[in-house]
């Protein structure tokens, strides 16, 4: 409720909260034809689509949060280009009308009995299950965090609690090292850890402090970006702007009182290096949802085990999944959620008719690589790491138009298209833009 109050204060005109959906803590045994776990990007999107398919009264969403955040805009919040208030809306205003909102946390999934248990002990049974639980952030896996965020000069765009600290650290920068990290785990939006470096560089240039700054990107990866076409462009930018890139450097400790960050060299086990910092941006280690990990739905690592084309579970045919919680071998993004939602709707509609799923997800995902306060490289690619660009021009070039897309068009598309189940990714437009050739 405190978060909701904060959001209302941030939106002085208030936000219209729909009263048409039914929300309650799960209190008695309940049954739903279509049960959705998680009310983030994938969960709300699929509940909108399932409402159209099976009727609102047959759909329920289990989600504990009062506020739903549009996380991609946090990149711009951390750089002072958007407010944190603009990133959140009350979950109640986004839940499709008539759909049951179970305001609880899922504690356990039992696909053998088609039931889910919530943290207040309620058992909900289902006919079909859509898992959209996202992933977990693990700041605590870095020694000295999260308590280090209590000190100045350190922030992280990956959490609503710490994103404004990034902007504060950037504004307070005087002279020294600005250090940006990428962890040794899969992450959501793999471009975000370096986007904030480009924005910080631009900000320090604008404010005349760049000459006193060493910009350092320490990444666990052996590459700057996973797709060569875009990595080549990014390497040109880092050379031109004098940004230092250290590959295979993994953050293991933050000594926030001394403004020191400790990295291990992943190519030389046991070797560590201490970087003093004037500003530190942390991208935390991430991992699968503990609820999925502890269930028979998990693969050997803990991700939801799906057929990568149909998004149906590999062992339980009445279970489906979408988004960051899955083991789909593509980059974890909201753009991927959009493309997956169109395929998954089709898969489920076929299964309901006892037919074979016929639409295949090609791994489409996208990352708007923000390279300044008015330029973006729009990376779009598939399972094979092949560029799958929507526009009929080279998207590896920095463009103003793409910044406008990221900052203004995409949020609109998210709130009014994706979450209402009306946006399934740019596939159809790509065909038109390329005159039917792609
Ligand atoms: C800084 C940043 C920048 C990003 N930039 C981009 C970008 O430019 N482009 C892009 O496409 N994507 C971007 N993303 C990624 C994008 O936000 C995610 O990939 C997307 O939100 C994934 O959707 P999801 O539904 O899988 O997970 P989420 O949207 O995270 O939703 C998961 C939901 O599950 C709920 N949940 C968790 N555990 C439980 C439980 N036990 N019981 C019930 N509910 C639970 C959570 O409360 C949450 O609401 C960015 C993300 C960040 C953090």
Please sum up the structure shown.
The protein is of the alpha/beta class and 438 residues long.
Account of the protein in words:
There is one protein chain. With 438 residues, the chain is an alpha/beta fold. The protein folds into two domains: 14-134 and 289-368, FAD/NAD(P)-binding domain (3-Layer(bba) Sandwich), CATH 3.50.50; 137-286, FAD/NAD(P)-binding domain (3-Layer(bba) Sandwich). It is 27% helix and 24% strand. It is built from eleven helices and 22 strands. It has helices at residues 2-10, 41-54, 74-77, 91-94, 163-171, 192-206, 228-240, 290-293, 334-352, 400-418, 427-433, and strands at residues 22-24, 30-37, 59-62, 67-69, 88-90, 100-102, 106-110, 115-118, 123-131, 135-137, 154-155, 176-182, 213-219, 243-246, 249-255, 260-265, 272-276, 279-281, 286-288, 319-321, 365-370, 376-381. The strands form six sheets. Strands 1, 2, 3, 6, 7, 8, 9 and 20 form an eight-stranded mixed β-sheet that branches. Strand 15 and strand 16 (260-265) form a beta hairpin. The structure holds flavin-adenine dinucleotide (FAD). Flavin-adenine dinucleotide binds at residues 37-43, 62-65, 71-72, 74-75, 105-106, 132-134, 157-158, 188-189, 192, 289, 291, 323-325, 332-335, 337, 366-368. Flavin-adenine dinucleotide binds next to helix 2, helix 3, helix 9 and strand 21.
């Amino acid at each position: 409720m405190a978060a909701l109050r904060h959001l209302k204060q941030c939106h002085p005109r208030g936000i219209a909260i729909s009263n048409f959906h039914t929300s309650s803590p799960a209190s008695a045994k309940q049954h739903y034809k279509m049960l959705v776990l998680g009310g983030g990007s994938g969960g709300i999107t699929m509940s909108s689509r399932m409402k159209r398919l099976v009727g609102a009264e047959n759909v329920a969403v289990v989600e504990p949060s009062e506020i739903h955040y549009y996380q991609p805009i946090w990149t711009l919040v951390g750089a002072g280009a958007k407010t944190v208030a603009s990133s959140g809306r009350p979950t109640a205003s986004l839940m499709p009308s008539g759909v049951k909102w179970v305001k609880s946390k899922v504690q356990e999934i039992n696909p053998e009995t088609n039931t889910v248990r919530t943290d207040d002990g309620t058992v909900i049974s289902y006919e079909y299950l859509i898992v959209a639980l996202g992933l977990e952030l693990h700041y605590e896996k870095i020694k000295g965090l999260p308590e280090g965020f209590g000190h100045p000069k350190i922030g992280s765009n990956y959490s609503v609690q710490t994103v404004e600290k990034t902007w504060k650290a950037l504004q307070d920068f005087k002279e020294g090292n600005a250090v940006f990290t990428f962890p040794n785990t899969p992450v959501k939006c793999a471009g975000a850890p370096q986007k904030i470096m480009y924005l910080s560089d631009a900000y320090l240039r604008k404010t005349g402090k760049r000459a006193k700054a060493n910009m350092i990107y320490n990444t666990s990866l052996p590459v700057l970006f996973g797709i060569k076409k875009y990595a080549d462009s990014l390497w040109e930018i880092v050379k031109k702007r004098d940004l230092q890139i250290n590959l295979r450097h993994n953050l293991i400790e933050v000594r926030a009182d001394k403004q020191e960050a400790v990295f291990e060299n992943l190519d030389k086990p046991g070797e560590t290096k201490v970087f003093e910092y004037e500003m530190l941006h942390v991208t935390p280690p991430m991992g699968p949802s503990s609820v999925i990990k502890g269930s028979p739905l998990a693969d050997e690592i803990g991700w939801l085990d799906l057929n990568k084309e149909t998004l149906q579970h590999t062992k339980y045919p009445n279970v489906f999944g979408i988004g960051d919680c899955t083991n789909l071998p593509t980059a974890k993004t909201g753009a991927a959620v959009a493309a997956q939602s169109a395929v998954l709707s089709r898969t489920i509609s076929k299964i309901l008719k006892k037919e074979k799923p016929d639409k295949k997800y090609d791994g489409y995902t996208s990352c708007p690589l923000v390279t300044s306060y008015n330029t973006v490289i729009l990376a779009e690619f598939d399972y094979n790491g092949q560029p799958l660009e929507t526009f009929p021009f080279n998207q590896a070039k920095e463009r103003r138009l793409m910044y406008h897309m990221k900052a203004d068009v995409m949020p609109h598309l998210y709130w009014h298209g994706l979450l209402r189940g009306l946006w399934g990714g740019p596939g159809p437009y790509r065909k038109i833009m390329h005159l039917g050739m792609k």
